[in-house]
Amino acid sequence: MIEFSKGGPAMKAEGIGFSVPRREGPEKVTGVARYVADRIQDGGIFGVTVRSRVAHGRIKGIRFGPGIPWEEFTVVTARDILAQGWDNRVASIEPDQPFLAEEFINHAEEPILLLGHADRTLLERARRAVTVDVEELPAVLDLDQALACASLVGGKGNLFKEFRIELGDPADIWARAAHVVEGEYLTGAQEQLYIETNGMQAEVAPGDPAAVTVRGSLQCPYYVHAALTALFRLPPGQVRVLQMATGGAFGGKEDYPSIIAGHAALLAWKAGRPVTLVYDREEDMAATTKRHPSRSRLRTAFDAEGALLAMSSDFVLDAGAYTTLSPVVLSRGALHALSAYRCPHVRIHARAVATHSPPNGAFRGFGAPQSLFAMERHMDIAAARMGLDPVELRRRNLLRLGDRMATGQVVTEDLDLEGLMDRALADLDYEGKRAAFARHNAGPSPVKKGVGLSLFMHGCGFTGSGEQHLASVTGVATTASGLVRVLAAATEMGQGKETVFTQIVSEALGIPNDLVELAEADTREVPNSGPTVASRSTMVVGRLVQDAALGLKRMLIQERCLEEPYDAEGFRTAVARAHARAGGLTCSTEYRQPPNLSWDEVNYRGDAYPTYAWACYGVEVSVDTVTWEVKVEDFVARQEVGRVINPVLAAGQIEGGVTQGLGWALWEKVELDQGRMINNQMTNYIVPTAMDLPRIRVYFEENNPYALGPGGAKGLGELPMDGPAPAVLNAIQDALGVLALREVPLTPERLLEAMEAEHEPG
Amino acid sequence: MNQGEMRLEVTVNGVPRTVAAYPMARLLDVLRDGLGLVGTKEGCGEGECGACSVIMDGKLVNSCLVPAVQAQGAQILTIEGLAQGGSLTRLQQAFVTCNGAQCGFCTPGMVLAAADLLRRCPDPSEAEIREGLAGNICRCTGYVKIVDAVRQAGAPPVRP
Amino acid sequence: MRGDAPPCQVQVPGSLGEALLLMGQEPGRWRPLAGGTDLMVPFAAGRLEATRFLSLQRLDELRAIEVEPGTITFGTLVTYSQVRQHGAVQRHLPNLVQSAKVTGAVAIQNRGTLGGNLANGSPAADSPPSLLAYGAEVELASVRGVRWVPYEAFHTGYKRTAMAADELLTRIRVTVPAPGFHFYRKVGTRAAQAVAKICLAAFARVEDGIVREFRVGLGSVAPTPVRARSVEAAILGRSLDDLPVRAAREALLADIAPIDDIRSTARYRRTVAGNVLAQMLAELAGSNGDPQSFCQPQ
Q: Which one of A140, A662, A663, C211 is at 20 to 30 Å from A78 when CA atoms are compared?
């Protein structure tokens, strides 16, 4: 049962497990929350970006057309950056992407120059009046063409990253196995479509050194900070980054804001005025990062009873023109390629391929939805080929305590995936419906019905030694008013981070929620607790915050300001006293890699993630064979997540993520021309409305609390993205009997083609 | 007033306002830039997402599609006009309690669409709620908690 | 994007006469602006050539729905919401009500107008098929007088209409059909706020089991909304027991010319238009000649 807090000023502690209404809520429902486009800068100007329209070429010249008062404009090109001795490369895993193109263009949305002016309408006219003369060069846009390497785009041999995950040795298995099933699975790009587009504001105070302040819509203030200190070669103290209210992100504001911040700051420097640079929807959709398109070629060997003997995956991502986050997306994708199964012999070959398209990047799930789509779809096709029930096939192969995963990581949780699956199937009435639909489908109705499932996991936190490299730091501090203040760089973007951290601290200290406040995500105010990504904010950062809170309590006791037991009043007095006396106390915590985890980054072996959330999703669909439209009639999302901090917020994450996953499965097709998105309007890029989907039914299990998470919590932000697509296609297979559904999005047009191909004579 | 601008007289949230605007300027921009009411948001600029929804002469409209000239003399309700004197309406409170707002960017338009629906249909079914909100895209919530919030809200009076 | 507002001029005539006078003085120079839900989209994106607009907002005489014996007449500024809410329209023209219901969503329906939508001339608009199925006429007015044009002659090419440069579409008159069979189905990109990929509307009157009247209108399958005349010819005069569905599907191919575009494919449109046609004929056969209305989505 969900427990709702009973309004009013909370003089009781509502810690872990309570459905505390979001503290950020009231400002959202009154229109008071301030997003970057809402903020007026005195004396400020606006900026726009002039971009390439050609996928690959050499810049010959830039012409500024007639009818525009160019002398009023601020213009910035790569030449400005280089002339100042600054670094034109965006700080990244591999800094190969320029802020502004120098001589060559490598994708059809590449930023070439920036314009600034106070009049937004004139600015737009000016943008259209700039002509970039380009000597066009042949563009590599096809994965196979890129892999063939006749023409180089980037990386090493057109690969930004390549690695292998190997377990056992499948070489002899293929010939001996009772069943070998092969399949190729394709997933399309996906646009995050946060309702607030990307935008940043910048102010540059001249000096030696100068001071740069940026604020805007972003997920990772310290990523932007690093990008700006690198660009301007400034010491860290000279750059300040603040997050404003952010209208959705989902990974789409993980790395791209660094570019926009750099652009806004460059204009602000050159104009000597504050700059607002907000993208309109068309530009945002076409130019910023999207989910990597993927291709998985799977081969699995089963014994006569359906036990998995061997699995190989050739997993390829289309990275676009620059490295950006592709190595880590590839990594997470490859690590999820085997889904939640036991298999003694594994070969996963993963490659992130360079093409002349706008770079792809982070989107909730981060590679795992792509590889899990392939494996979970493959299991149903394999089941059908072997004459097995898809549920049974999974039952025979589910991971258990002590099993090894593809990297050799041993499952240390006492998993009950079978129970999870059975409960999810019961929630959906899977067996009952399957039987009823088989009868129904044999009848005359043009509407065919089916049910399908997917079973999967999502690794929580950064992969391998990622968290160790991040070395996240948080703090909890005293304030003059007696509240405790949480210092963390985690950003609120709708998931309720502020409320969850409040609950964690409230629980740890036994104090009312109102005695907890959170510092804004401002690099001047908070330490670097890492990016708000990878399903890590509650589990990793939340735990650090919990420890810092407990540490502060110990400090207060040591300073003799506080004695246990205490009540709310007593605690508040103690904090205020300590603050006045000691000038403020802060307890800082830094991430320590759990000693029992070990990871070999070179050979991709060991403990890939500290823990996993596990899930089974089930869906009922009806397919109208008149129009080939698929309707989702019922959706069950059941997951084991260790501990639910706030049930209503957690359910909201699952409902939202499932909806995005269903969008990706059925509607969200990115149409490309020259690598560039051409259906870049909301009229033509189709996301679900309130009329397109039923209620998503969400169930949580807390059977395997994660000892190192706050209250036992694991991460769950990305998990819901992984399950819907394969489950839906599995359900359509059940409804129509057609196996050749191996691509998402499965639009009605594609479904019709698949049906026609399946029934073609000869 | 610049050449070509008109003198636009509108009543916004019960208050008569006069502002200079180009006749073909979007009502959205008149509200945000001309009147400083930034609660109404731009999500797409093409009338698809509903983030710019306001209530004009008693009807829900996409303010990005209304030219200023056609707002002459109109009564407009924006999100700022709902909560009066610092206390939330029942509908807004329901959105908070039910977690109907996540990132909050679609929320102003969504709340007004819900207010418009409840005025026309005080006790809507789930299907009616979903139809009433079909023009407001949310990317965060999957709509479940939004529907819950509208259900919970019942029929609050909507000020003109 | 906000469009280039500063150079634009807008006239706001106080009466139809005034509006027509202005259009007569400078034919083709003033672009009529009804609810703005069509025009403002390309305008904001900087893709609209026009910079001079004639706002019809004060022409209240064009906002009425007039019910007379045998006809219902819509003023050009009647909104989709008005169409949906009007009792007589609900009773007699269910296809039109359904087409209004599936146009955009509430906010669009409150501002979008029937006349504006027709004058915009998009082949993908949702109302034209229902007007073709019912048989409608449109009144075109100018300083030179008024003329009535059969609606099926109104669209002359892709986004081109029969209107002269000085003419305004002022009224749409629909003959109230005898009790009969109404069918409307829009196949959109999603359940709401969607452009049609195919749209089919039909009306049939059956007497003694024979189809006496039959009209089919389609959208999104040709450069204009189309009457499926070959299909009608195949079905008219036939018995409900013996409707030649196969022949009708083949006849349909002669009436439509679908294309590949950003939303769908010619192949899909061709196949699904045929499927929806077959669905409609099955519903018709199943009606046994009893008056009924079938609209999808519900």
A: A140
